[in-house]
Amino acid sequence: MFPSTVAHQIDPQFSIKIDRKSKLQKHRAAMEDDHRPWANLHPDLLSLVSQARGLSLEDFTSRRAVCSPWRSTMVPATPLLIYSAATHGSATPSSSVCFKAAFCLPTQRSLEVRDCLDPVITKDGIIVGSGHGWLAIYLEGAPPSSRRLMLMNPISAMRIRLPELMDEEGWIVKKMVFAPNPRMEDFTAVAIYGEVYKWRLAYARSGDKNWTKLPETHDPEYMNTITDLV
């Protein structure tokens, strides 16, 4: 009733798809073979890579991101101590030729900081807070209207401009704390500002045009107790 043999016809388009898929798999395998030597470098060589002289903070973090073996071999760069110092022959660290660096505590070595910090960490820029890989920077200006606050990530160079905190002449920002993982559209910051024996508190959130200042009190005992934020 049925023929003893059945002829199966293969769609030519289907055959082409199989051939393309096979070539794609071979191409991916070849690419993996090309990149595999990076992951198979001897730990001693990786140590030399991570200890290269003149390595910047950006270079160090980029090399850790090459592959999983590199990331497991090279310790994280954080925590860091950001500092500025005068180059050889300069009189003071506040001179115009100062350089910026970060001292990596896990590796006990200095790493150059990218140029994004040059315009802000100067004799007019003060780091008033840090956390979660970000810096809170207060830029002092002669008139109060020129004083600025910002959050900056020294690795990604991202900046978040905060509202101006203008007040009386001579008042400064003593310290600022902020919520983890700040973004331009989502941040919360609290600052201690004022002057000695007259410290006040203010906070700002994303979308605010001005800082919200907590009501001032004339109780000297209360004003003297505002010494820190955590």
From TrEMBL:
Species this chain originates from: Paspalum vaginatum
Domain of life per record: Eukaryota
One protein family per Pfam: Beta-prop_KIB1-4
Span of domain KIB1-4 beta-propeller: 126-224
InterPro entries assigned to the protein according to its UniProt record, in alphabetical order: KIB1-4_b-propeller
This protein's name: KIB1-4 beta-propeller domain-containing protein
